[in-house]
Amino acid sequence: MTTDSQSRLLVTSGDGPRECRRAVTHILRRIQMEANKAGIRFRAELADETNDKDPSSALVTLTGAGSGTLSMSWTGTVQWTCKSPFRPHHKRQNWFIGVFAVGTATRPVPDLEASALKTETFRSGGPGGQHQNTTDSGVRITHLPTGLTATSTDERSQHRNRQVALERLKSKLFLKREEGLAREKSAQNQLHKQLERGNPLRVFKGERFTELR
Question: Torsion over CA of 97, 185, 56 and 10, rounded to 10 degrees?
């Protein structure tokens, strides 16, 4: 669900090739840039990254006044027109990415009962110095049914790190679920072909990811 204070977007390559995953990276950077300019908080949870470091999909959370408007400006198919940066002789130059609004109000997060979670603590801190954390305040939470994990070492207290890690785990579970729902929208589980047939909402060109108006 999208509200004026918080919105969620699923950005997905739809099982497209490596070029589409690179486009996901470009889109995330662009959304973050627009969010920062508008004073909107940006957070992205990535699907498992491949060896090339470009994620197949990501769940973006936008928080702050105007987040709904920004979310709507990206919802749809995004086209990236660019010669493949990975396959110099590849003829294809058009790559398509799906950006879907994610509703959370009517779809609860999968089981987050204590029995479904494994919580581990560990020593966290920087390279040293007076502010180094010397207690076991870092927290890693594993969702046993799916194997997804989330970690936090950002806060000084173990209690607060657990809260942060739990929120990150929730986002990862949303991402996993919404990826599945997006694929179910295609009768033959061919989301990427569905994206290519759609009319792009926004079009970008070249490795500098310049928007065509």
Answer: 70
